[in-house]
């Protein structure tokens, strides 16, 4: 989740992505052995039932292997660490812009893992 107003104002991604309650994780965390091809997972995001993103992890700018390799050169990665990779393109650029509002329901599904549901407050 991103506070686009802060991101635009400060020109840094981390500011718009580092607020309380902007990093939902779960309800499933699975071991890599349970995913046949992590480079080709289908990701779908719905807001109030409307599809806002439907894409494959194949479309991500960097592969999971590249992300892990790059991070491991500057930090020690240990079992249980979570790396926030972002998502394939398509979720943020909607014309006209549609921002989340209080009461919105967000469903993010990654096949074959499951669905994470959150409500905006």
TrEMBL record:
InterPro entries in the cross-refs: Fumarylacetoacetase-like_C, Fumarylacetoacetase_C_sf
Record flagged with keyword Oxidoreductase: no
Keywords: Metal-binding
Domain Fumarylacetoacetase-like C-terminal: 1-120
Pfam families: FAA_hydrolase
GO MF terms held by the record: acetylpyruvate hydrolase activity; metal ion binding
Keyword DNA damage: no
Similarity-based family: Belongs to the FAH family.
Name of the molecule in the record: Fumarylacetoacetase-like C-terminal domain-containing protein
